[in-house]
Amino acid sequence: MSIKQNLLDIRARIVRAAANSGRRIEDIKLVAVSKTVAIEGLAEAYAENQKVFGENRVQEWQDKYEHLAADCEWHIIGSLQTNKVKYLNSRIVLIHSLDRLPLLEKLNSEGEKKGGVWNALVQVNVARDEAKAGLEVNEVRDFIENAVAFPKVKIKGLMTIGALNATAGETRDCFHQLRELRNSLQTVKYPEKIQELSMGMSDDFETAIEEGATIVRIGSRIFGHRSEK
């Protein structure tokens, strides 16, 4: 199937999942994960009105973003090294992988240098998967309250990745736990509203939507399977 057909299918499935859970389609954002996808593939998606893209690596984002229109929205969804922060600019709308104090400190100092503010999501290792980054559930509240001291970073919500070999029930429970954590943070001492939930990928995005995802990250279902660089 073509990228056009894949997007039509994905969008239809998002609509159905939203309807099944009594949610508004306007409250769910589709991030097309463009890792290792050539510019031509992104351009094809853009022609079908897909304007939100997610990259795992800063270098790859640098190689791509100037080739697409200025109205594209770019997200960094992969693990972000502190030594790569200096290469980011205002084209980055959201960082999904804020997972440690040194990264928070670096983003803040770079924001001071550049006169900008980074929007970010706190990555939470709900599944307790040793292969994945992220804060433990019980660390998140303190981390966000301490982030008040870093005004060049605005925490907008939470992100998680389901365990690789989890059952459908375990994945749903993981997403449910993140939603419950988000809800519990409405009383957190932090000036921003903790609202966004980035969860769900190609194989589980419908479950994520049913459990409250506001952002789904879909790559292979749009662009096809591709090998790692």
Describe it for me?
The protein has 229 residues and is α/β, with parallel strands linked by helices. The protein has a single domain (3-223), classed as Alpha-Beta Barrel (TIM Barrel). 36% of the residues lie in helices and 17% in strands. The chain has eight helices and eight strands; from the N terminus they run αβαβαββαβαβαβαβα. An eight-stranded parallel β-sheet has the order 7-6-5-4-3-2-1-8. α3 links the parallel β2 (52-55) and β3 (73-76). The protein starts with a helix and ends in a 6-residue tail after the last helix. The relative contact order is 0.16. The mean pLDDT is 95.
From the structure above, extract its key features.
TIM Barrel, single chain, 229 residues, eight-stranded parallel β-sheet, alpha/beta, 8 helices
Short description:
This is Pyridoxal phosphate homeostasis protein. It comes from Syntrophobotulus glycolicus (strain DSM 8271 / FlGlyR). The chain has 229 residues and is α/β, with parallel strands linked by helices.
Number of strands: 8
Strand content: 15-25%
CATH class: Alpha Beta
Summing up helix and strand content along with how strands pair, one would put the structural category as alpha/beta
Whole-angstrom Rg: 17 Å
Percent in helix = 25-40%
Termini separation comes to 23 Å
Main sheet makeup: 8 strands, parallel
